[in-house]
Amino acid sequence: MNVDYIVAMLMISFGLYCLLIKRNLIKMVIGLEILTFGIHLFLISMGYREGGIAPIVTSTNPASVVATMGVDPLPQALVLTSIVIDVCVTAMLLSLAIYAYKHYKTLDTSELRRLKG
Amino acid sequence: MAGMTLIVKTASRLLSPFVLLFGIYIVLHGHLTPGGGFPGGVIIVAAIVMLLLGYGAEAAKAKFSPLQASVSENIGSLILVATGLLGLFLGFNFMKNAIPLGTTGNLYSAGIIIPLNIGVGIKVAAGLAVILYAMLTAFEEEEK
Amino acid sequence: MIEAAPILAIIIPLMGSFLTPLISILTKRYKKERIRDLFVVAIVIVTLLLVLHMLPTVWSGNIIVYRLGNWTPPWGICLAIDGLNILVALIVSGIAALVSIYSLMYMKNDTGLEKYYTLLLLLLASMMGVTLTGDFFNLFVFFEIMSVSAYALVAFRRNWDSIEASIKYMVIGSLGASLVLLGISFTYSLVGSLNIADIAQKISIIGTNPLPPVLILILALLMTGFCIKIAMVPFHAWMPDAYQAAPSAVAALFAAGTTTVGVYVMLRIIYILFGVAALGVMLIVLGSVTMVVGALMALVQRDLKRLLAYSGISQVGYILLGVGFGTALGIEGGLFHLLNNAIYKALLFMCAGAIFYRVGTCNLDELGGLSKNMPITAGLFTIGALAISGVPPFNGFASKWTIYIAGIQAGKAFFTLLAIIVSVLTLAYLLKAINAIFLGQRPKRFENVKEAPMTMIFPMMFLAVLCIVLGVLPSLGIDIVSPAYNALTNQHGYIRAVLGGI
Amino acid sequence: MMRRVLAIGLVCAIGALLVFTVSNYLLPFGTFPQRKFENFENQSVAQVYLENAPKAEAGGAGSANVVTSIVWDYRGYDTLGEATILFTAVCGVAMLFRAAKEGD
């Protein structure tokens, strides 16, 4: 049973729901984060192997053990990259939210649209 | 933003050097243990955040000014590109690991990974500090 | 000659953007801020020269593969440049060079210019990165740099419209990026590779005729993600706001650069990665819906930049329609339209910027009678408008005519008729715009408006000349796009060149 | 209300589709280097990283941490892009909160 995969997909769905329904900008950011973390969870769990160890050579895990038992290091590298991308987008979005709140005193996206009028 | 109570001030004064040291350790051991430039940089910037919360924005800016932050961010980025171009100058392709590799498991090993980690550590710490200071200005104007 | 030209075309603008803040600190201290602007222009022109340097090699039928860090694909990242990439790289770097020259005067009165130029160089570097890369995840990373710098540039003027447009663009764009990332992770979990050529080879083993359900899901995720980025019709809501709010120079670069890159990525995924030509019907339907809705929405706009944004959406529909016909003529016509679209869209946005620079508004209700004040801009705008509506002897006619003929040959007469009707609609709304801006009653306060400055006129004139040249000599245009056509239909050649016969 | 119902319906459909796909078409959890789909059978490219990355003589970087080796050596260019995206975001945020007038 692929419980990990299913949980990741459910997280993606919840994030999507949050993004579609919520009108508060901060809550939309949270939805976006849940969506992205669902994808990260999927990527990481994809690289697991039965009884796997961390892909780091130490005195107890020599190179030969890592080569046969290590989990997939590539998705971990991809997730590192993806986390930073996510942080950057969130930083931009939150600073836009701060700016909008400071000048227009609202975070409600439907309100934002009406104000434009 | 003014500082906080005495407890917070004392705790942040005592802790922030160790946090800084731990961040540097994480950056330098990126090729041996979990971690590397990005997490290390974030831990380094946490030390600045502690000072900022405890003593107020002015004290933090006196330690690490916004101009210093943005210059060192650029320097960190240039270290990355320069390390990449090193491979090009030595006759290989861009980003080739062209300098001597040490023995696996030592602190000096893995060639260009060390300068790259240091560069990205500087860059992330300085970059997040710039973001922090920029967001602070939004609230500083409000207080005036 | 220069072996490292592919990587330098990405790294030089990148390094330029890292250096710009340092240079601007120095130039601000000595009050010589022009040096910073000229430095940026020089960097962009060097990039263009590097692309031109690669041109003869690629056009003679070779595929340049540059292995980063000397790693063999599929283990390392490689840059793979075939006819399709080089066409897009040429468009992007050429338009960026003109836009940077145009910005010298256009942005003169804004604050925070060092940030503007840094972001402009980052946008150029990331577009070059997306265009030249041969690795799927790397493409995503550079696409995100492009998006983040685009979000920032949309908010550059910091007025209410731009903040709102940027928030909207960002939420929708991040959703698209997440879908693309999900598609990439599904691809990796299915075939275990990230190199485009390697994935293509492995997918061809799985077989795409008929497409297995999981591949359909992957394709749907990737297509939805990139459709959001190029504003195909169900997802087009962000685009008019963003283009209206962005400074016109940036809007010109978006319309000509990022849209072109987005279309390129879609073509790369459909033709090289999946190798499925069977998607033609989907492309035709999406393309014609986009075309019709864009043109109908453009008819009712009261703001020049908004109108141009909707017409940009509608023109992307033409490209997809042409490519979707699937015949050699159709694909060539679509690619030719991609080139032409970049040229006249940039021209029109630059004209809108020139009007905004002198008058301070782009609202069609307030403008009027400017042809006496700005005769050159009026003439150039008219050339652009006639070109985009497909009136001979301009370049739009050449590519649209090719698409019509291809449609009739492919037996899709209904869609061809639709394309012709949309073309007439395009002419209608642009004539309305010309009438409202340049003819009619001139309000009193516009009497002292002067012609746009020379550094803004020059890039516009250059583009207008290109419009006429490609219209008079359509065979020249077909010659430019035929290497791209050859690359698009040569999936095996691409795989062989990248993987080196593995 | 209508909007909420529509959104719930859409999300349920997408979620069901995704769950159906991952539980039927992907290999089960925990079978890492293996990649199999109908007639296609292969190993993930990442297996080679695990074998070669810690050994300098096999062409790897000789880094004890395989993930770092991928992040900075095999796919270093990606990470350069990642650093650039941080630079972009910093630049964007600084642009947004810049002073209203030139001079400071």
What do you see in this structure?
The complex is a heterotetramer of chains A (117), B (144), C (502) and D (104). By secondary structure, chain A is mainly α. Chain A has a single domain, classed as Helix Hairpins (Orthogonal Bundle), CATH 1.10.287. Chain A is 75% helix and 0% strand. The longest helix of chain B is centred in the C-terminal third of the chain and has 31 residues. Chain B is elongated, with a radius of gyration of 18 Å. The model of chain B has no long low-confidence stretch (mean pLDDT 83). Chain C has a two-stranded antiparallel ribbon with strand order 1-2. By secondary structure, chain D is mostly helical. Chain D is built from 4 helices and 2 strands; from the N terminus they run αββααα. Chain D has a two-stranded antiparallel sheet. Chain D starts with a helix and ends in an 8-residue tail after the last helix. Chains in contact: A-B, A-C, A-D, B-C, B-D, C-D. Chains A and D meet through helix 1, helix 2, helix 3 and helix 4 of A and helix 1, helix 2, helix 3 and helix 4 of D.
* H and E string of chain C: HHEEHHHHHHHHHHHHHHHHH
* Radius of gyration of chain D, CA atoms, in whole angstroms: 23 Å
Q: N- to C-terminal separation of chain D?
A: 50 Å
Tally of helical runs of chain D: 4
Mean pLDDT of chain C: 87
What number of domains of chain D?
2
How many helical stretches of chain C?
A: 19
Please indicate the percent range of residues of chain C in DSSP E strands (runs of 2 or more). Answer: under 5%
Mean pLDDT across the residues of chain D is 81
Q: Strand order across the biggest sheet of chain C?
A: 1-2
Helix content of chain D: 55-70%
- The counted number of beta strands of chain D is 2
Q: What strand order characterises the main sheet of chain D?
A: 1-2
Low-pLDDT parts of chain D are: none
Determine the N-to-C terminus distance of chain C. 27 Å
Q: Which range best describes the helical content of chain C: under 10%, 10-25%, 25-40%, 40-55%, 55-70% or over 70%?
A: over 70%
